[in-house]
Amino acid sequence: MKFTKNIPKTFFVFLTLSLLIWLLITLSKEYVAQVSLNVSYEALPQNQLLQAAPKEEIEIIAKGTGFKLLATRFFNHRVQLKTNNLSKKGAEKHFFLASNQKMHIQKQLVSGLLLEAFLKDTIYLDIGNLVSKKVPVISNLKIEYRIGFDALKPLEIKPDTILVTGPDNQIKAIESLSFAPLLLENVSVNFSKKVPLLVPENLKNVHFNKRDVLVNGFVEKFTEGSFSIPFTVKNLPDNLNINTFPKEVNVFFKVDLPRFNQVKESNFTVVCDYRVSEINGLSYLIPKIISKPNFIKNVKIIPNKIEFLIQK
């Protein structure tokens, strides 16, 4: 036969009341305990910047009732630390003693909690000078043009420089920036592409006035042209006569179709410098173009060596 014993409800009531009374008595007593405080820092002067994240917590020894200590653990508000009286350690390391701000910190603690001591008194800050400089944007574009088409003028990047602001030790390492790789294929018309900049991932507290750039390309249909151009020989000694073979060179070039008829034979000047061949012990002359239309491209001279005989 099975028996059960009923426990009166009043027993649980008295037990609960007893625990509450014990807890109230216990928490009403004063204790000395270790407390963690969340901290923030006053703003630095405009020309300075934190180069690394500072401590977010400090450990203190505090005295107070159990209620106060418990409240601090569960409702830990942020305490602000002053940065107007720093000492230097090296070029960029700065520090201050938390104990020098004891009264300032005490005023920010919950009423009835007494700050006794700091577990680690010294707080370090990595501070650098705030500087700005402009760096160029380098193209990271690869273009494959449709047959017969080419760039009409150089690629346009807007903006072509980026203003970078941050700690001096990080800014001085940035010489240029590039944008994300961009491949355009079978291109035959003008294009405009917005592309993000590639920003180094290891930088901290560095600001870029732009995070992307606009890449503009100007495309036109091109054709090839050529002229047979006579050349002159300069720096030839007065007492020397030479015969050259050939007497003319062929100049090949590439030009956009709308301006093809603007290219004239008279736009080209080809010269051979006898002194260059003499100094370098060459038995031939080297033709060079010293003037040409500025809008043509892929200019070649054939032949690129001119044979000569000295007349006696």
Q: What would you say about this model in short?
A:
By secondary structure, the chain is mainly beta. Helix content is 14%, strand content 49%.
Structural description of this entry:
The mean pLDDT is 86. This protein has helices spanning 9-28, 66-74, 102-106, 168-171, 274-279, and strands at 30-41, 48-50, 57-65, 79-81, 87-89, 93-97, 114-118, 122-138, 141-145, 149-151, 156-158, 161-167, 177-179, 182-187, 191-198, 207-208, 212-217, 219-234, 241-245, 248-256, 269-273, 284-285, 287-291, 297-302, 306-311. Strands 2, 5, 6, 8, 11, 12, 13, 15, 16 and 17 form a ten-stranded mixed beta sheet that branches. Strands 10, 18, 20, 21, 23 and 24 form a six-stranded mixed beta sheet that branches. It contains five helices and 25 strands. The longest helix has 20 residues, at 9-28. It folds into three domains: 29-128, RNA Polymerase Alpha Subunit, Chain A, domain 2, CATH 2.170.120; 130-220, RNA Polymerase Alpha Subunit, Chain A, domain 2 (Beta Complex); 223-311, RNA Polymerase Alpha Subunit, Chain A, domain 2. With 312 residues, the chain is mainly beta. Strand 5 and strand 6 (93-97) form a beta hairpin.
